[in-house]
Amino acid sequence: MNADQDPKPGTIAEQTLDPQNWARFRKLGHRALDDLIDYLQTVDERPVWQSLPPAAKNLFAEPLAKKGLGDDAVYEQVKQHVLPYPTGNIHPRFWSWVGGTGTPTQLIADMVMSTMNSCGLGFDESAASHVELQLLDWLKALLDYPLDASGLLVSGGSMANLVGLAVARTAQAPYDARDTGVDSHQHARLIYYTSSEAHSCIRKGIELLGLGSQSLRTIPVLDDYSMDVSALRRAIASDRAAGRQPACIVATSGTVNTGASDSLCELADIAEQEKLWLHVDGAFGACVRLSSRFRELAAGLERADSVAFDLHKWLYVQYNCGAVLVRGDSPHKATFSVLPAYLRKLDRGLASGPVNFSEYGVQLSRSFHALRAWMALRSAGSQRYAEQIEQNIDQARYLSNLVDDHKELERLAPTAMNIVNFRYRAEGLDESQLNDLNAELLMRLHEDGVAAPSATELNGCFSIRVANTNHRSRRADFDALVAGAVRIGRELASRC
Ligand SMILES: *Cc1c(COP(=O)(O)O)cnc(C)c1O
Hints:
Elements (H helix, E strand, L loop, with lengths): L21 H20 L12 H6 L11 H11 L12 E2 L9 H12 L10 H17 L6 E5 L2 H16 L4 H4 L9 E6 L4 H9 L7 E4 L9 H13 L3 E8 L11 H11 L2 E5 L24 E5 L11 E5 L3 H7 L33 H11 L1 H24 L3 E3 L7 E6 L6 H17 L4 E7 L2 E7 L7 H20 L2
Parallel strand pairs: 1-11, 3-4, 3-5, 5-6, 6-7
Antiparallel strand pairs: 2-8, 7-8, 9-10, 10-12, 11-12
Helix pairs in contact: 4-12, 5-12, 6-8, 6-11, 13-15, 14-15
The structure holds pyridoxal-5'-phosphate (PLP).
């Protein structure tokens, strides 16, 4: 179509995606909010998990129609086919992976952040920029980490770890790694050390940074699943002897399998002696620092050069939200800063905000998810958060005792923090039969809607793994888990 055939400007009605009828939209909004609050209030009356029926799966297979259904009809579909089938981490008997619960306060935060729809740039002079900076300062204080550290909210622990590992690379390479990239033919290979219990995102990060997984040394763990520090010392010495360049220790505070913590104080000493970067993956474990009863589990965290942790796990923030803190501001900025003219701060006006967050990480546009954590923390106060974390650890100990007291159950790892590993056992079954039985038992727990632990493998044993970052769980929920596991275990054993 050429310009002559275009309709004359002003002859067609302009459109918007706003509602044509705001009163009707308001009614729907109020109804939806009522439904959602009812839903949260009654979450424990539903099974922890249920599978999606064909009707829902059919809906999710439909192509996008040209003509829209309108907000009311779509909301009805969501109510019928989406809401009943959550992952389950809002339920008091959910303990899979490290699934945080979230809090109702943040439902309101979600509406506010969605309404404001800020861009999360930081150099936009907006409440969002200042809220995020304040939240980061609160987090440093809660973790007892140096207040002059730089920080950034990111999508989660994986991204937070990637940022920490990237800063370590820039800080430790004796050449300009941003300029030349990592070239292990031209230069000594940079070596990162982590334990065999480290989360898989560490290896992913190393690979993404171009270091190659050959740059990741996996150090064995002791019986308590913490990094074997003497093995680490030997590995560093042997890498130096071979002409490689030890660069970074990646410690874990709260391993994903068992909740074990590496000895951060000893690792900080080694990092100091060997001039290595100390990065801590404290995805959930860093949060014990809030508790005066349990903060020793992460003693030495304040000495780390960088710390990655999740708010969506043990700070009960809605998905998704993680954070990274880096000692001193300059190594962090030196890793990520690229400032084209269109992203530069101005002296006054909209673009005169406090900080350019894109200089501290991978993302540029980001949601205003800081508001969720900000509202939740401000509403409950730090003391309640500390108590909630302590309650989760006490509950894990309670469950450990239930398991230890039951002769058909066997605990498979020490309960160092908030994670319990166990299995059902029966006379006369070999290891492979026990593994099969316990896998079946776990799937039955899910399918019967009893409880939702997850699985892992410890020393070749299939383990039922209960990770408790759930503020809705009660001791009675752990009683129910044990009763359910024993009931299903007996049923399965009788068929072996
Ligand atoms: C969950 C977890 C991660 C990954 O965090 P995400 O938020 O899922 O990306 C990394 N390390 C540990 C120890 C974790 O528990």
